[in-house]
Amino acid sequence: MAATVTKAGPYFASGEISFSSLRTNFKETSSGSISASELRRNTSVTDRNPIVPDATENASISTGNNLAISQFRNSIKYYYITQTGTNTNFDIGAQSWNSNLNKNILKWMYMNGAVGSSTSSAAAILSSTAHNLTIDVSGSILGSGGRGGGTAGAPAISGESGGNGLNINSSGANNIVVFVRNTANIYGGGGGGERGKTGANGADGTCNEFQDTGWHCQGNAAGQEKCASGFTFCKPGWRYCCITQGGGCAVAWWYVGCCRTTTKLGGLGGLGGKGGNGRGYQNQSGSTSGESGSPGQPGEICPSGNQSGENGKNGERGGDGGNYGESGQSTPNTGNGGASGRAISGSNYSVTGILNTNTIKGLYNP
Length: 366
Known about the structure:
This protein is mostly beta strands. Helix content is 2%, strand content 28%.
């Protein structure tokens, strides 16, 4: 991590101060005239190219008629900060601007290193009021990938939204420009995939159970048997029973068994697979695939050993996480895939430079 300050200046730390040197350093021309009125410090925040800018280092330079050449001692023309190395959640406004961010001196924030975020916060942010600031990007600014639905810390079903790359929310700002070089990677994070739908439960079934009581003649003691708890007499039949009635045989009816009908529950459906994580700073090369659903549970078994309740259906596969700047995949579940993060978000800025699918992924216009 490094953020280095440089300046066009300070000028005239010692020695003579001539009008020609003032013309060279501030009007930036080696010929022609320069007047005293042109050398007054300009404090207008809407002026995009002041000759003598307003800056903390230039506070002694007069804005009125009491201008003196000696006031230019240690004065500056431009201000630069260069970021290198790796940072997370980089705050542009918190850098060493020496209170110049809201003044009209032309300033450059060079983003040459790698900046990212593993949270919903943008990888780089500017929330302070700024004027005449160019954010010059040749490195990477990567938003966080949204977590898949059902994964640790994410919603139970819906995928998380991807994080923004660069957020500019500079109230009252003037002339903030994001300049994109051909080596830049300004990417919004991909949204997380939605969790797969839980599988359908298996249909309930019935068991028809039978207990044979045997054949018994009506009136015999053995014929007084009762069905076990939950069973009722069923399957009436008949046969000749020789019951002595005046020396002959009589026909007697009797029940031949006991029956019971019970419901057996179908198996529960399997859980849907977790959604895949979106592509982002914390997931630059890992998988974005959703997980397979869990198998359905078996249905209940009849006492005979035959299955009656159907097996539950397998859970559905989770949706894939989105690539940089893309939404997560939705499934037939009740939520949705996470929205994509923006490459650049906010207001009061413009974007220029090399703008293509390699340098920017995600929305970027204010």
